[in-house]
Amino acid sequence: MDKENLKKLKKKVFDANIKLAGSGLIISTFGNVSGIDREVQVMAIKPSGIPYSGMKVDDMVLVSLSGEKIEEESPNPSSDTDTHLELYRNFTGIGGVTHTHSGYATAFAQAKKAIPCLGTTHADYFYGPVPVSEVIEDRCIKDDYELETGKLIVRTFKNRDYRNMNACLVACHSPFTWGEGPDDSVESAIMLEYIAKLAYRSISLEGTVEDIKKTLLDKHYRRKHGKDAYYGQK
Amino acid sequence: MDKENLKKLKKKVFDANIKLAGSGLIISTFGNVSGIDREVQVMAIKPSGIPYSGMKVDDMVLVSLSGEKIEEESPNPSSDTDTHLELYRNFTGIGGVTHTHSGYATAFAQAKKAIPCLGTTHADYFYGPVPVSEVIEDRCIKDDYELETGKLIVRTFKNRDYRNMNACLVACHSPFTWGEGPDDSVESAIMLEYIAKLAYRSISLEGTVEDIKKTLLDKHYRRKHGKDAYYGQK
Amino acid sequence: MDKENLKKLKKKVFDANIKLAGSGLIISTFGNVSGIDREVQVMAIKPSGIPYSGMKVDDMVLVSLSGEKIEEESPNPSSDTDTHLELYRNFTGIGGVTHTHSGYATAFAQAKKAIPCLGTTHADYFYGPVPVSEVIEDRCIKDDYELETGKLIVRTFKNRDYRNMNACLVACHSPFTWGEGPDDSVESAIMLEYIAKLAYRSISLEGTVEDIKKTLLDKHYRRKHGKDAYYGQK
Amino acid sequence: MDKENLKKLKKKVFDANIKLAGSGLIISTFGNVSGIDREVQVMAIKPSGIPYSGMKVDDMVLVSLSGEKIEEESPNPSSDTDTHLELYRNFTGIGGVTHTHSGYATAFAQAKKAIPCLGTTHADYFYGPVPVSEVIEDRCIKDDYELETGKLIVRTFKNRDYRNMNACLVACHSPFTWGEGPDDSVESAIMLEYIAKLAYRSISLEGTVEDIKKTLLDKHYRRKHGKDAYYGQK
Asked: Secondary structure of chain B: what % helix, strand, coil (to 5)?
């Protein structure tokens, strides 16, 4: 493998973790970002339980798609490593994954509720309600818990397209987001938290609020995404 | 056209966008402020999808009242340009428009609820409940969506006076505010968010709360506005 | 009158206004603090509608107890001046008054609800529920509105002791607090906002929550106040 | 007693109090942290009613397990001293105690509600719902109030293990947390506030939400605690 490329991967993943730490979404050592080099099938991920403040680029842990550490001297990878790997194995177009316990998105996950699509802010980023998984089964908790958490997310996307819905709430747990690279997955985590906050407040005002209609959802999502997008300078 | 005046307009609009970025109302590249020079009928507006951090005065885009770019080398104007223009064409006394997705005002927009006038803080700035538009019709979403959004706001003000109500919530979307100049429209956006927050909390405490009575509304609005105002140093 | 003492009074009132501005309770030019020199019966108060940022000690306006400006060249005093004066005339033991539109206390005022005494944090500072006034009558809005607002507060305290309850919510408006000096009245405003926030959240969790029992209220209030207090270093 | 060790204890307790002050959980002079040297049975605790800003290491007050001041010239210890001591006497494995009036945990205490265990964030730190005490009896308020508050917490833990539940809400009052040392007890206070915030929001979304199932609780608690823990770098 090309050492230079792996170094670049580590740097990207490090930068994304630092961005996450500065986003206000993180408390203590919670949260982690990973990225993958699809050519060599190597993932870099935050080490487990290490404070963001003292972290260095070289602390990022390189892991193969099947979970082996690439560099023996690395610290332990995030305890959520197997969840990340399962997402990379199944969502083959993604290049980065972010996991947080951010305050509003997690509140929805704990309430076992999808985040309804109540406005165009939501529609600008996520194509419809952000789904919530089933509660994980007991047998999955006992064996390979983190791997099974990944499988649970993949199952939740059986009839969904991971390319227009960059996020999943794991019931009783918290959100995972993804994107083209590590940085994009952090962006998705930030936007997810914001639209969760908006939805929380709208629901407080109304009890139940219906999703926006499909035409409006389509308009806003496609204004920013896909071949007919006209937002920005492209 | 006088180049000096257009430069001044760009500077005013730039300053107002920077103020908005520092107000805490904005996340990511959301939000935009425009201003108009009524003499030459030229609007300046934030470019589309450009981060606030690197933005320069000269990035502000000059557009005619009918929507043509004045300087060919300009970046693309905000994707909400046609909404701004429709407001300038109809609310002929205004000189600045601000659009945000601010957290509390947008929660009301998503709940399709006007912001009731529950106290004198509200009455100091907005003369009665801040209206919410109808949900935009499907045909308006398909053709000229941003222009139709402007028309929707104008229709919402058919029997209202845009001079004592500087704000409109677009249902399932978010707020637009306006004022004498770009800076005033940002001030309105900031106050709108604050009174939305107050109303949100009062409603949480009560379920439903009635608007304040007309005499109190009149007193406070007129203490700060119009010929009998006695607040401040004028 | 002793010029030196009036200068000291201005300085105290200025410092308290700056403290208020830095407390997070204030938005825009809202809010004002006053203080009184009981010997010469002169009040100093923030000028009307002037931003906190550029404000100078000498901008504080000196006013007699009956409302005349002492120094002709002063800016206009706060538009709430007559409310402050009415409180000084009736609550003869107080030396400072603070007025804010702080986010949680105002939410209670807008909901026309007293802040129930739900815990010892509240009991440490306010002896029982913080009262809310009646809604001001129409005739009082039309004539001498600010004076009548003061009278409304005084009426709310007809059977209450202003010495163990340093705060009043004016219905549909916002809170006034007071204390031995200007600085103490700001402290009261800060604590009022905090216990309003706690109560807001407890009520959200329960719908209705009862006040704490009298023995607990007495214990905590008297731990910090009066002859048997044993909190602190005195 | 070894002067060097007591100095170290003071330093640890001082550092933990400063950490608490910087955590955003504290307003005014509220809150206090203590630590104990189990060998010599001496506790160090924050002095009563002294601002965090000017506080020095030497202001920490040394007290014997039965409540006598060790150094005569010390300031008065926290008025909550007897509560801390009662916890050290009964929870013999702990080395630090923190008391706060933090905004969300206190809201649950005021609502007289335990914090339900709604997600894995909670399960990572606290093994099940965080209990709330009974409301303190009148006779306990009158005599030795702070000691009785300690006894109330101890009684609440009659059938609970203080080693896997580092926190207790005192009804109508606020939380106490503990840990191996002063710093750990502050960490517990910070995590308690965070999971209280998450629970508050989940409850707002649902009315009532059930606790997570035992298998998931076990998995997460044991991922971070005890002999089979695999989180972090140990």
From this structure: 40, 15, 45
Look at B145 and A219 and tell me if their CB atoms are within 8 Å. Answer: yes
Q: Please list, in sequence order, all residues whose beta carbon lies within 8 angstroms of the beta carbon of residue D57, skipping any fewer than 6 positions away.
A: D10, D11, D14
Question: Is B231:B223 a contact under the CB 8 Å cutoff?
Answer: yes
Q: Do the beta carbons of residue C136 and residue C219 sit within 8 Å?
A: no
**pLDDT, tens digit (0-9, with 9 covering 90-100), for A76-106:** 999 999 999 999 999 999 999 999 999 999 9
pLDDT at A176 over 80: yes
Of B201, B213, B216, nearest to C103 by CB-CB distance is B201
Tokens describing residue D188 = 């517990």
D44-65 residue pLDDT tens? 999 998 888 889 999 999 999 9
Record the tokens describing residue D37, joined without a space.
């040297």
Q: How far is CA B77 from CA A150, A161, B39, in A?
A: 42, 32, 21
Strand duo C42-45 + C61-64: pairing: antiparallel
H-assigned helices in B163-207: 182-206
Poorest-pLDDT segment among B191-195, C55-59, D14-18, D223-227 = D223-227
Task: Report whether pLDDT(C40) > 90.
Answer: yes
CB atoms inside a 10 Å sphere around CB B47: 20
* The pLDDT value given to residue D174: 95
List the catalytic residues of A. 124, 231
Q: Which value, to the nearest 10 degrees, does the dihedral of the CA atoms of residues D121, D166, D144, C118 take? A: 10
The yes-or-no verdict on residue D221 having pLDDT over 90 is no
Three-class SS state of B77? strand
Q: Is the pLDDT of residue A221 over 90?
A: no
pLDDT of residue B209: 61
Structural tokens at position B70: 């004045």
Choose the catalytic residue: D124, D145, D200, D211.
Answer: D124
Instruction: For each of the domains in chain B, give its residue range(s) and CATH number, in order of start.
Output: 3-222 (3.40.225.10)
Q: How far is the C-alpha of A122 from the C-alpha of B101, rounded, in Å?
A: 11
pTM to 2 decimal places: 0.92
Residue of C30, C48, C80, C172 best to disrupt the B interface, most CBs of B under 10 A: C172
Contact (Cβ atoms closer than 8 angstroms) between residue D43 and residue D85: yes
Gap between the Cα atoms of D38 and D65, Å rounded: 10
Beta bridge partner(s), residue B175: B169
Distance CA D123, CA D198 (A): 12
- Asked if residues A40 and A3 have their Cβ atoms less than 8 Å apart, the reply is no
- Tokens 């610290």 sit on residue: A75
pLDDT of residue B41: 96
